[in-house]
Amino acid sequence: MALENIGASNRNDEFYRYKMPMMVTKTEGKGNGIKTNIVNNVDIAKALGRPASYTTKYFGCQLGAQSKFDEKTGTSLVNGSHSTPKLTSLLEAFIKRYVQCYGCGNPETEIIINTKIQMVNLKCAACGYISECDIRDKLTTFILKNPPDAKKEAKDKKAMRRAEKERLKEGEAADDAHKKLKKKAPSNGKEHADDENIIPKHLENAHEVDDDDDDDDDDGIQWQTDTSREAAEKRMKEQLSAATAEMVMLSVKKEEEKSLVQEEMKEYLKKGLPLSQLKTFISSLSEPPQDVMDALFNALFDGVGKDFLKQVMKKKKYLVAATQEEGGSQMHLLNSIGSFCGKSGNEEAAKEVAQVLMALYDEDIVEEEFVLEWYQRGPSGVDKSSLVWKNVKPFVVWLQSVEFESQEED
To answer: What processes in GO biological process is this protein linked to (predicted)?
Structure first.
């Protein structure tokens, strides 16, 4: 069975250890009864650590078609004829939203359901970060009604650990076989037919030291770790430097991915396709919903300053299409507005942010409860002492007064 790396961002990493089977589909039936069968959906879901019913339901929600997963036979069917590349791109979007950690991108996450506030979270086993899934997504509602089986998840984790141990044993056996071949190799100075068996003398000595850590070498030297305070501080600085470099690389990589999404969005808008297709295009992207909304907003209003309100009203139809169900959310739009106006050089746009929010509120593009929640949390990437925050405050105060008056009337 052909395997591929989990996550589109890890596609070209040949040493990536999280893998899943490549999708295999089959079209069945004819006419109105035509269906697409995801043949190995159970194996894919097992590799992702998610129930196969979740992936099947996600395909149906995104394609606007009926879907069904049979627990007894393990059959996953989606009404209609759908190509393998299309389903694969939707699977990547599912992995981004419901498998990979929003913090570090590791797919080793566990679904945690908070029944009190009706939230679906992903807890990362690698970094401990808890990601919040979009509550407006239909699959989130489905997960709340159909929580994963804890016993089955534990069983799958045990199977994964068992497979990992078996791979380690196979690696150790291969190392032992290599050492035996090295010992049997002739030492008459002639070249060997197999270059892999030629091991320099200094490396042979290194292997002998590694094989027996308790014995001293021929010179009676004992290798010890320097436990002095100066040495400990030096090692700590080296580790911190390595961690900082890794964080910088992750940040650079994330910025590159964001710029690629923005370029894709600009190319799409240049084509002038109908708005009805925008929702489908957004759903096909594998990046997080917030990154997609940021890319759309920046593509629409790049370089806009003084006439920010005018341009927003001119292109509001795109924002309406992007904030429909499954195509984004009002909270993502508000975050995009805050980060856009908070950028250096966008001071003119920041002056009109309150008028923009008022206009979007009057047009029913953003609702009162989301604006108040957004203001309470604080805009993503915006300092509360910034011009954006100061200009937004009067509008929020007005909203709160309106809400108070309506409560008094009730």
So the answer is: formation of cytoplasmic translation initiation complex
